[in-house]
Write a structure and sequence with these properties.
Length: about 325
Amino acid sequence: MQEILQRYEDLPGCIMNTGARRIFFVHGRSLEKFRDFRDCLDTLEGIELVDFTDFTPNPKLEDAEKAAGLAGSCGLILAVGGGSAIDTAKYARLKNPGLPFVAIPTTAGSGSEATRFAVLYKDGKKLSVTDDIMIPDAVVLDARFLKYLPEYHRKSSALDAFCHSLESFWSVNANDESRKYSSKALSEITAMLEGWPSTYDAGRMLMASYTAGKAINIAQTTAGHAMCYKITGLFGTAHGHSAAMCCRVLFGWLCKHSNLPLLRDIASSMSCSSPEEAAEKFSGIFSRMSLEIPRASWNDIEELSSSVNPERLKNFPVNLDHETITALYREILKVS
Ligand SMILES: [Fe+2]
């Protein structure tokens, strides 16, 4: 059972309770902006912080190995940051399973703080690591950490959380528990995205993104995520932006090509009377966010269609063949 703290001022007490005296502290450069938080940690008597900042945005396995080696001499792992910091720390915990692990997200979208998954890169290739031991023992969901999130990343991470709740909802791995999380997150996130930006609330989004993370921890993501990674690779769009482009088209496609009863549950979580209306609502939300849709060549479409992650694709409730995937990509991107 994960402990949730909503104020970082409660963290020192939580750390002292573990008896740890050396903290392996994984964080990015953005931490410099959170001087009050650093001051709060520095007031801990008899505690030594071992800073680790030696990792890149798409964290390399070798850096995570280095982190795991250094963490061995510490009594607790603390990660503050986006997916990269948390995933690096997750690997350190995997190799040091006895160490307590606390994660503090500084974006509201990945849900990484709630999952058993970490994404690392070996020789430029994506490596997915999965283990329950990587789920943090405690998380701090404090909206103040989102204060400096740039507007584009605020949008894309909110859309990422939306896609997690939607995809986990229709995933073939979903169960009663995951659907409960999916439904709650989907209804919260839809309400916040509908009147963007005035309806956005950082604290509420952090909690919803965490709940969506709990849903994907059980049900995983599906075709939207399977199809989005290469879009980011080719066009440099943020992960949540790419995932939303794919989910928008997949949602409409699924309404047309299946009559799965769960689509009605998705619609009602989004306060809509039909799946078609819900798909339309998400499409409208995406359009109003004014995010660019990249222009793709025919070669790009072919490259995208050939590089879809087959593992995640299997979680989609309808089988998608190569021809269908190509047609979907043509709808997702502007083709020139
Ligand atoms: Fe995602």
